[in-house]
Structure formats: C-alpha cells, structure tokens
From TrEMBL:
Biased composition (Low complexity): 107-124
Ribonuclease H1 N-terminal domain mapped to chain residues: 138-179
InterPro entries: Ribosomal_bL9/RNase_H1_N, RNase_H1_N, RNase_H1_N_sf
Positions of region (Disordered): 64-128
Residue ranges with Pro residues bias: 93-106
Source organism superkingdom: Eukaryota
Short name of one Pfam family: Cauli_VI
Compositional bias of kind Polar residues: 65-74, 82-91
Protein's name according to its UniProt entry: Ribonuclease H1 N-terminal domain-containing protein
Source organism per UniProt: Lentinula detonsa
Length: 265
C-alpha cells in the first residue's frame, strides 16, 4: 500500500486558491496510486480538518486498488479468500432469501386393535338370562370352584360352560358387584353354597324374602336379592320346611327380613 505524505502547511489553506491547489494535489496523487480510476470517483472534502481526511481517503483508495489487483495469476490472496485452513470445515452462509426447508412431517401409527384388555372389553351379547346380557360390566359368581367378582365375561362364560347350574349375576357397575360379593361372602352365603353343593332344597331364614326354595339360584336371587343373609341346603323339602317353621315360632322370631340392597338402582 502506497503511503501519501502528509501535505505541508500552506498560507493559502481555506482560500479558493488553496482549494484549487489541493484539488490538483489530489488528482496527482490519484494518478500515481491508481491511474485507471475515473475522475468522477474523486471525493471532495469540505471539512476544516482537510489534511487528516485527505489521508484517510487516500488510504481507502489504496486498499481498494490492492483488492482489485488480486487475481489467481498474481498469487495474491483476496480478502474474500481468507477462509479457515483445510483442518476446519468451511460452511457457506445461505442467501437471506433462501428459507430453510420445512422439517419433515411424521404421523404416528394408529393404535393396533388386535389386542384388547379383557377387563375393558364389553361382554358379547348372550342369551337373555339374568347375568348373561352384554350390558353388564361386572359379574359375581356365587357357586362353582372359583366364586368371586369378575369383569371378564369370557372367564365367566367358561365357568358356565363347565357348570350349567352355576349361580352368577351380572351388574351394571363394578362397585355394585363388589358390594354384592362382600355382602354374600361376609355373611357366610358363599360357604353355605359350597357346603350344600348338589342339595335340591334351600331355606332362607335371613334375607329380603325368607322362605324355602326349590333351587339355590332362586334362594340367592329372590330370598337374598343377590346380597347377604343366611341360607342352608337340604336333601328334602319336609325337613327344610319344619326347620323354617321352628325358627318362625321362636320368641323372638329367628326369621329376619332385611332391606332390599337394590343393587340395580
């Protein structure tokens, strides 16, 4: 870069003649630094600090000239070629007008319907027999090998297929099923049914409708209202009736009528 010597102080500085002489000096300096620069590129200085600004402008013109002379043939590095070394990867900055691509859109696969929790399945429609309709969400099994409350209709259906005399009932809610089960279990109904398996006559001495019934299913349904109470299995009807009457004649009576649990309200 060619350095321009700072002009000497002149008594004509600030006068029209001094400005004309300064302009001639600028033109001569430009011809020396870059003869190819057109005259219209001359920058006129109107400030008081003319000498300092003249030097600044001359330095800028020298930098521009040096940048214009850098070519692959000369071997000079241009300012735009000053990139990181080969050990560092160079990334071009995308033009401002180029918007980044939209991120890919993914869609989650629909949940599979091949497997469904048995506890959440709606029981299939069955014969219009108490406890077998598909509108129920829970079931209580009173007899058989595994009495309990269930929410799985297929499990209850398998027990029914093995035992046609299975005593069970469907409930609209699991809460009602649990309430019915614990009422029957805590009062001894479940144990009485297990002990009296195969007996044809059943007496209810404590329940919704105490009486002697000809099947355990009727005794649990009508006599107990699917809840708790006291019942007993008998081998013959005469013995069951005699026992029931003896309890009714006792003072106080040992026949107890309980409120309907109303599990279906």
């Amino acid at each position: 870069m060619t350095r321009i010597p700072k002009p000497q102080f002149s008594p004509l500085k600030g006068t029209p003649e001094g400005r004309r002489l300064r302009d001639l000096e600028i033109m001569a300096a430009l011809d020396e630094v870059t003869p190819k620069v057109a005259r219209q590129h001359i920058i006129w200085i109107e400030s008081d600090d003319e000498d300092e600004q003249l030097m600044v402008q001359m330095e800028r013109l020298s930098v521009k000239q040096e940048a214009s002379n850098c070519t692959p043939q000369t071997g000079k590095k241009c300012p735009q070629d000053q990139r990181p070394s080969s050990s560092t990867q160079w990334h071009e900055t995308p033009p401002p007008s180029r918007a980044p691509p939209d991120p890919p859109k993914y869609s989650s696969p629909k949940p599979s319907t091949s497997q469904t929790s048995s506890t959440s399945m709606v029981p299939p429609a069955a014969r219009a027999t108490p406890g077998r309709q598909g509108i129920f969400n829970a079931y209580v099994v009173y007899s058989g090998r595994t009495p309990y409350f269930y929410t799985d209709w297929p499990a209850v259906k398998r027990m029914l297929d093995e035992d046609k005399d299975l005593v069970f009932k469907g409930f609209f809610t699991l809460e009602h099923a649990e309430e019915a089960w614990y009422a029957a279990s805590d009062s001894g109904v479940i144990v009485a049914i297990q002990n009296g398996t195969g007996r044809p006559i059943w007496s209810v001495t404590e329940g919704v409708k105490p009486a002697v019934y000809k099947s355990v299913h009727e005794a649990v349904k009508i006599g107990l209202g699917w809840g708790g109470g006291y019942l007993k299995g008998w081998h013959n009807e005469a013995d069951a009736i005699e026992d029931w009457n003896d309890k009714a004649r006792a003072r106080p009576s040992r026949i107890v009528t309980t409120p309907d649990p109303a599990f279906f309200l």
